[in-house]
């Protein structure tokens, strides 16, 4: 009986400890405090001096790291006591995020334990402190929205593999085509006047600003080329990043024949290859990846709401009905007044179509400008600009009469229209009446805004 009573007391004390740990874990501000410590730990990691390890700043941050590790160790221990270790559902090690916490904290503790010793093997053990960079990932578990995005990315990786295979196949096709088009054609001589390797010998004069120096002629190959499929893969991948690809395009356009130097603009039609490549890869495949993630995110949202009694379309209708705002349109009350007749005119379909035609014609006129145009041509375009500005000003005046100034300015598009007309009138007054020297770029800038009204 005595042993049974001792066992019962021990179990009771353990139960009290576990209840205390559960009380601490479920405190309202516990998770917020841990998030704050994670943020401070991340800032401390970014503030370390990686060059001078014995910097005074690093010494202070080292003690802060001890404190942060202590907090994370305390969190890990009380969660182990609260949830249990492994045997029952919901235990600590049955959650992948808890396993990540355990690895990060354990790595930091092991590194601290061997921080005062030296040796090759010990240095490898102390490198476990690198696991501290995983601490910011602890925030994902604690913020539901971040966790939803992370789960979406992870789940989308299952389908990314199929798209990646198609991506590599298309990349291989373009690499093979590039090898056929450009193999052996990306050579050049440091003396640009020489186009053959046999002539690229001796020295030449290099004029660098005010200095002239004799430089040896060298036959070289560009850094990125298409001499084999592997280099073609690397070059095309560089092009797809959008960094430095104009240089590769210039080399391709200037390429002549195998083992010969470049000639500026020799085959301008080779640019079509890069246009097609950009359409297929940076545009098409990137949009496929984005669409895949969006679809996965929507599927997860539908899965989360699958327990709801309403279907997806029914929920969408309810959300629309709750969030919908009725559209209002002004109409004069007195149907016999002049304002009502004017309102009926400006809201009629023929009036709207006429304005659309004028906007389209104004856009065509803007496209007719070119450098070196005759004087009579410029005068004609200026007169057309005045005509269109007058018509748009008349439209603005008619709408102000029909709707009234206050109702007219309630619509954002009307405000945009009014500002555009006002700018065009100001530009004509300034440039045509010669109040100051003309600004030739002002008129196209103001008139081009009319295109947005379409």
UniProtKB/TrEMBL annotation:
Keywords: Calcium, Calcium channel, Calcium transport, Ion channel, Ion transport, Membrane, Phosphoprotein, Transmembrane, Transmembrane helix, Transport, Voltage-gated channel
GO molecular function: high voltage-gated calcium channel activity
Bilayer topology annotation: Multi-pass membrane protein
Gene3D superfamilies registered for this protein in UniProt: 1.10.287.70, Voltage-gated potassium channels. Chain C (1.20.120.350)
InterPro entries tied to this protein: Ion_trans_dom, VDCC_alpha-1_subunit, Volt_channel_dom_sf
GO CC annotations on file: neuronal cell body; synapse; voltage-gated calcium channel complex
Protein name: Ion transport domain-containing protein
The species this protein was found in: Echeneis naucrates (Live sharksucker)
One record GO biological process: chemical synaptic transmission
